[in-house]
Structures are given as structure tokens and as C-alpha cells.
RNA sequence: GGCGGGGUAGCUCAGUUGGUGAGAGCGCAGGAUUCAUAACCCUGAGGUCGGCGGUUCAAUUCCGCCCCCCGCUACCA
């Protein structure tokens, strides 16, 4: 048993009625960076992702393809799993809602909500569009000149009544508002919190939580004609994976409640309203934070199949390189807001920050050590104020990163690390070690030592963002595997004079845009 | 309609508990330099800080009104 503090973080589980797209990749990369950060910072991390495989749409898509929902789920779930591998995601588990463990957990949470008196049977009635397979509110529909009532998508609707179980969401209005009040950090970023509060204040209706019109789902305990509304089942995945519901003393039970659910802004309501209400009802502790990220826009436009601007994450990675893509999204996009990207933008960022910035800094300092100091870390002489200042900048960065990563402000943490790079370049230029080589070799050695030491820290800090590239950088300054966690930042892990360094090699090549025409 | 967020340099954005000169990156122009991945460093570019009005000795920052953009406004997920 470790004495480390548990830290549980999740992505939303993806709906696999299609292949993963860039939005899925973005969420996974960001969550992975946060999980890696906490691990390096000494936490006992459990990082979960997976697929949400039930529901009407899965059944429908499968039918259209002439295959079973199981086959569709299996096929696409594997695509998501493969994407995780491609992106170097460090998730500790990959949950599928079709797994037996999840059916058990979902039925258990249902029973608990029922035992608490929050589930009742009634009938759901509304204007239903067969074509859209969706219900609409009366005011969303209109009766046209032909006397037929149409839904918002322009499809005819009919009045349908369906037997359904309901969850007494209306009973949780005050409790939820109190939650948002007492735990201001429960929802982030703030704009989303406002929206949620506004939504809850406008009044909550009971939620229909079962369906009888299709059967691809988890059976309602004691009434097998019904399957659970997908969201009841989907949200429960976060608890399922910890085993908390079935064995509170199990090996993973300690991870519940989750520290952070990282989701897209489109599903904030399910996570910030329904989910805590379900948990309260079932008597289960609430997650500490739900954080919604924004959408990625292709040159400012929403990606859509009709615009033909959908970007495949696999292509993006093979074109620019994995760490480059990870870096770009985490550096350029304010996490929590929408972000715009383009090939030019990615290329520019890679060259400015990675090639010209961190890569070049490592190269210019390490190559001088290789050429002038026999490739060994020199013994530093007395430190000047300039030396101390740049070391302090590096040493203090972890505090900033910890603060920002703790609030999901990934871009600010990355910005703080990039700041060390920029400061270091200024330091290096001001110290002019290439001049010192002829005038004061001891002083040159000190400058090179200090710079290499700063490179070490930059590399350690960059591990969550760019795991492979940061590792290469750490190899270049001969930091052993076991000394790469955050406890070795600062004084604790200073490079040892006399250490042999490998021959410097470029870690971040410049990106050269293909000659090809740009339409 | 209601609620919320936003309109700041060519582009993407940060920022001001109201006050000596409004910032960063990219792009651009000039300079310096040669350790380095034609990289790095320095300087500049002169933007009515959406519009109108108000409060104040003083507002881009506070208040009111108006214009524009975006999000939320429940049972597909």
C-alpha cells in the first residue's frame, strides 16, 4: 500500500457510434497531461477513459450498417482504444459500459436511488418525431398550413405516451444550488458555472430515466421491459471503475470521489446537475470538480462533415508529430475556452516555441559543453546574481505549474515553463559564454552549468505535456530515470559535475510546410 | 424573450481593486551577434481599449443606454 494521496481524474466516456475525432483527442491529451502531472507530483493517480456504448443511437447506427450493436460497439471502442495508444495516453483503465462490472454498478446505483424514494413510474408524453427519434416540447413544434404539426428539424411529430420511470430531480433543486454555493469550485470554468446555476434556478423537472422503445441498454432492476436512460448508465461509469459500489474496501475504492471530471462544454449539464443529484440520492460522495473544456475550431469555424473541414487526429499526428500536436493544443488553447487551429498555426508554434525555443536552448548550451568541456558537466564556480536569478526562475516554476494545473489552467502552466525558456535565452545571450571561452573559461563553465541545469528543469516540467520529447531532453543532460519526478526539481536534483553527457542531438526539428499549394 | 460571456495593435489574445508612458506572441521593419536547429538578443511599429451619455480632479477600467458576436435556456448523446 502506498501512502500517497489518491488522485482520480476522468475524461468523459466517448460515444462510439463513429470514429474518434479531434475533439476526443483533445480531451484525452489534456486529461492525460493533468494525470501525468499529478503522478510526477507524487500522487497516487487513477486516470480513466472509455466508451459509452448503450442507447438509441448505437442501436440505430448498427441497424443502418446491418450489424449488431455489440459488433458496432466492439469495433469503434477499439478505435478509441487505439487512439489512446497513438496519443500516448496514460490511462490506468479503459472502461466500456457494456462490461458486466458496469451493468452491476448501474443497477446498484439505480436500486439505491429507488430505495431513497427518488424513482417512480409514470408515463412520459410529448410530441415525438419518428424520423428524429426525439421528443420535442410543445413550443418547439408548429402546426403548418397543411394541418400537420412539425418539429424543429422540419419533421412531422405525433403525440406519444410512453411508460417511463422518473427520477425526482425536482427535489434536488435547492440541494444543488447549495452545492454550487458551498463548493464554488465544483463547476469550472466560471461561465459554465453561471449557466448551470441559471439553469437550475429556472426550475427542475423530474427526469425520465428509462426507455421502452428500444432495448440496447442496461435493464432496470425488477422491470426488464425498461432499459435505463443512457445518461444514468453513462455517468455511473466513473464510480464503476473504482469498484466503490460493490466493495468499499476494494483496491480502487479509495479513488472515489473523483478529483476531476474533464468534459466538453456540451455535456456540462449532465455532469453538473444530473450526476450530483443521482449521487446525492444514492448516498454516494460527490466528485470534487467538473471542468468543461471548449471546442476546437478549424480556422475559427466549427468542424463539420458538410464543411469538409474535419481533421483526423491520426493524420494530424503523423504530419506534425505527437508531442508537437500535444504541445500545440495545450499551449495555444486556453483550456476551458474554444480554440482555433490551423496548419499554419501549428507549424508556427512548433518552430517558435519548440525548435527555436527549447530545442535551440538545449542545443546551444549542450554543444558548447561537448566542444569545450569534453562533454562533461562542469563544476560551477561562484554564482553571480544573474545565475541565481535564472535558477530561481526555474526553481519557482513548479509552484506556478502546481497552482495552474490544479485549476485546469494547463495553458498557463505551459506558459510558465515557456517563460523559463525565454528568460534562459536572454540570460545566455547576456552572459556570452562564447566570449568567455577565450577570456574566462571557469566563468564559461559556470554559465554552461547553469544553463544545462535549467534545461533539466524545463525538461522535467514538460514531461506531462510531451512525454517522449521531454525524456529525450532528460537523456541529453544524463538525468537517470528515477530522478525525473518533481521532487528532484530545484536544489534537490541539481546536475552532478563530472557527469558524462551523450552527444547532443536535436529533439525538436523545425517544421517545414510542404511546398504544395494552399487552397 | 431570459440568463451568461465577449467586443483591446494586421492576426490570436492578456490586462487594469479608476490615475505617471495600454501589454504579450505571431507577422513586419531596423540593429547587434555567431554558442546554437538561417536559430538567439536589442529596438520600433504609434491601436478613438465596440458606440453614445453619466459619475469623478481623473475612466479602457464604475453606472446607464445602444450595436454586434458567442454560449445556455432539459429528456440524441
TrEMBL record:
Catalytic activity as recorded in UniProt: tRNA(Met) + L-methionine + ATP = L-methionyl-tRNA(Met) + AMP + diphosphate
Chief site of localization: cytoplasm
Protein EC: 6.1.1.10
Domain (Methionyl/Leucyl tRNA synthetase) ranges: 7-365
Motif stretch ('HIGH' region): 14-24
Places the protein is found: Cytoplasm
Keyword Cytoplasm attached: yes
Domain of life: Bacteria
Motif 'KMSKS' region positions after renumbering to this chain: 302-306
Function: Is required not only for elongation of protein synthesis but also for the initiation of all mRNA translation through initiator tRNA(fMet) aminoacylation.
Quaternary structure (record): Monomer.
NCBIfam families tied to this protein: metG, PRK12267.1
HAMAP family for the chain: Met_tRNA_synth_type2
Protein name per the record: Methionine--tRNA ligase
